[in-house]
Design brief:
Blueprint lengths: L1 H6 L9 E4 L10 H11 L8 E4 L1 H7 L13 H10 L5 E4 L5 E2 L3 H13 L6 H5 L11 H12 L39 E3 L17 E2 L17 E4 H14 L2 E2 L4 H9 L3 E3 L15 H12 L17 E2 L3 E2 L16 H9 L8 E2 L6
Parallel strand pairs: 1-2, 5-9
Antiparallel strand pairs: 3-7, 4-12, 5-7, 6-8, 10-11
Pfam family, one: DUF3405
Length: about 350
Amino acid sequence: MITELSLDTRGRFQVFILVNVKDNSIDLFEEDKYQEVWERSVPPEFQDTALLYNEVILREWYPKVGEYGAQDQMYQALQIFSQTFPEFDFVWQLEMDVRLTGNVARMLSNAGDWAREQPRKNLWERNGRWFIPGLWRDYASFSADVNEEFGNHEGIWGPHPYAKFYLNPQGPRPPVKRDSTWGIGEEAELITLSPLIDQVNTKWTYENTVHGFEPALNLPRRMAIVSMTRTSRRLLRLISSEQQSTGSWVVSESTPETWSLLHGLKAVYVPHLIAFNFKPQNASLEASGKELDKMLHKGPRWNLAGGEHAGLLWCNDVGLSEQRWLGASYFYWKGDAPRIWWEYTNGTCTYPLVLHPVKQD
């Protein structure tokens, strides 16, 4: 990853490893202590890229939040990173258990380039659906169908209409709603690798984990499974500022997604190939596409990937309602990624895939 991202691109990307020190008795603000832990814990070949933090540092930055675990507040360390290194306009966050079978720099660059060219018209409505090859000739056809369905009036346009009751939206002023070119050429402040789902009424375990926003349960919010994203410096600073001043927070998978929705920032779900290890009822492309559509889309039309017991979400009452996700190449738990990665590293050719999670090489 370091070779493909930093060396092959002549420094267009820089790789940093954020190391979570679990021992909170260590004062990492003391230079000698920091140096000692850094030398003892980080292999020499990675020391130039490693930055240490622990809960003490997070608490110092965000005393009003009260939650500092990686599961719920993974972006706090990234927010501090962005403040410390303001020269980076955008930051990709990749988890340690992700593997990519294609060239990493090319895949991330393509994602950013593609997101930049997406218009904002009905973008949140497209973001709420999986793009399924076999149902559409290409993404342009998919986008045209969504535009025809929602027209010029129904889709979210700029900040969510209720955002003003929770904060002061900082996104750009929207043009007239029929403008189909708004957003084309605009960098995405947030890129996700799965749809942006409205978690309300899904019965997701963290559906109602909302702190500091009042009334909490009416908060407009979105989430995207697996906290691997590209976030902008502006977005990270807006989150950081709000958490410092009010202590408001939602869980990691919902943090940049919700702030983007509230501020009216451009957020884009970038489709990528996901392999499912199950035998379809019909092997034709169109029939298997329809089967996936039925499996993946159970929500209301403006949030098709969501809805009650959305298949990829862990719900308190039923657990995982769609077991076929356990055979997916991109998921938050188990899945088929380890098998695909093992075969790929042993010589099997495959498409460029983002594999997650892979716990062992």
